[in-house]
Design a protein that fits this description.
By secondary structure, the protein is of the alpha/beta class. It contains ten helices and 17 strands. Strands 3, 4, 5, 6, 11, 12, 13, 14 and 15 form a nine-stranded mixed β-sheet that branches. Strands 1, 2, 7, 8, 9, 10, 16 and 17 form an eight-stranded mixed β-sheet that branches. Bound molecules: flavin-adenine dinucleotide.
């Protein structure tokens, strides 16, 4: 589906190196963090055990949303209104920053601003959606609550209510990540792959990343941007790994409205979808709480049939046959919020665990927060996402 990418220059690490920051992982999180730290004037070395953009990033359906998985009204009940509103607002700021920064760096990744239609489901019924719309308005978000008649007239969907939100972003995730990685390299970062970091040893004001082949990178700071693969020493409490399933239909520009909003259900299990520039519907869901790749892949055909059936029911005019189907894994947390910050008991080490359906929005948030923490300028929201937080 994605156009071919020019190769990103990289080579395995063959000798010891000293640097300011070592970033472990060359997915979209590592790319954004490396680019931001490079802009702040730091010397950066990136390492990936597979190669650039070979983790979860290319599997992403790339609905880049500020609306996080846990509704604001529900998050407020769980962690308090003030913190919930701050998290939602920061998510919006991060998404806006992502779009503005990609624009400034002239990254070409089919970026397109999209509305979001959040449909009534078994998680939030029409009354629940009304409360959620109020909570979002209170926090400053521009939303409308649509009645069933409005949902039917405007979008041809049969649901009793929906929240219409604005300002989200569709993207080609590989090209987006490649753009940030290239920008980081242009700022002087070096990318070594395939090179696996097998051990991390904090020292006096430095941290050493020991690689599988033997060479060592010594840095003042290390950032784990390893996606759902949790490195040894990073706290796992509250973290789990989820398997998820997706399909892309054939292109059908006539049947699919050009600026179709992202459609997303307030249900468990949920269905979500977007269109791409060729008129394909990219649709996913049916998450399972396990990580075993063989078991995950064995379920693909069955899960794709379930997704197709739900899509056909929601949008009967669409040809739902899957041109592509795939599955992947991502990290999840109880609240759908990420962990970003310094790793307790590993001096000089930071980690980005971007979570769930908003992983890429959280990658940008991580690049902002870690830039503040690593350069010593701080970040007013860092405590909301730290590994020591209470939720
Ligand atoms: C099917 C699917 C659909 C998704 N849909 C969306 C969506 O619509 N919107 C959204 O925002 N997010 C979505 N996500 C989540 C999003 O894709 C992820 O949050 C994001 O891609 C994670 O990027 P990352 O750079 O943190 O991790 P990855 O892309 O997984 O990169 C981590 C890298 O670290 C490397 N690594 C790991 N351990 C080591 C080591 N010891 N040494 C060296 N390298 C190492 C790996 O090789 C890998 O390349 C989806 C995910 C999946 C799987």
């Amino acid at each position: 589906m994605s156009r071919p990418l020019a190769a990103i220059p990289c080579a395995p690490l063959r000798r010891d190196v000293d640097t300011d920051v070592v970033v472990v992982g060359a997915g979209i999180s590592g790319a954004m963090v490396a680019e931001a730290l490079g802009e702040a004037g730091l010397k950066v070395v990136i390492m990936d055990r597979r190669g650039p953009l070979l983790g979860s990033t290319p599997a992403s359906t790339a609905l880049l949303q500020y609306e996080i998985d846990t509704p604001l009204s529900e998050l407020a009940e769980r962690i308090g209104l003030d913190r919930a509103e701050r998290i939602w607002r920061r998510s919006k700021l991060a998404l806006d920053a992502l779009r503005e920064r990609a624009d400034r760096l002239a990254i070409s990744a089919d970026l397109a601003i999209r509305d979001t239609l959040y449909l009534e489901g078994n998680g939030l019924d029409a009354d629940g959606l009304a409360r959620e719309a109020e909570a979002r308005r209170r926090a400053g978000f521009e939303v409308s609550l649509l009645t069933g008649a409005e949902v039917g007239e405007r979008y041809g969907l049969d649901r009793r209510a929906a929240i219409l939100g604005h300002g989200n972003l569709a993207a080609d995730p590989r090209r987006l990540a490649a753009g940030f990685l290239r920008a980081a390299l242009d700022r002087g970062a070096r990318l070594h792959a395939p090179t696996e970091v097998v051990k991390v040893e904090p020292g006096e004001g430095t941290v050493s990343a020991i690689t599988g082949e033997g060479p060592v990178v010594t840095a003042r700071t290390l950032v784990f941007a390893t996606g759902y693969e949790l490195p040894h020493g990073v706290p796992r409490k509250g973290h789990r790994i989820v398997s998820t399933y997706c399909l892309a239909t054939r292109p059908q520009l006539r049947a699919v409205p050009k600026a179709l909003p992202f459609i997303w259900e307030a249900s468990e299990p949920y269905l979500y979808l977007r269109s791409d520039p060729s008129g394909r519907i990219i649709c996913g869901g049916e998450d399972e709480d396990f990580v075993d790749e063989e078991r995950r892949d064995a379920l693909l055909a069955e899960k794709v049939e379930v997704i197709r059936a739900k899509l056909s029911k929601l949008m009967p005019a669409i040809d739902t046959e899957a041109d592509y189907a795939w599955c992947g894994s991502f990290g999840a947390s109880r609240t759908g919020t990420p962990s970003i910050g310094s790793v307790p008991n590993l001096a000089g080490c930071y980690a980005v665990l971007g979570y769930g359906g908003n992983g890429i929005t959280f990658s940008m948030m991580a690049s902002q927060i870690l830039r503040g923490l690593i350069t010593g300028r701080g970040d007013p929201d860092s405590a909301l996402f730290s590994f020591r937080r209470a939720f």
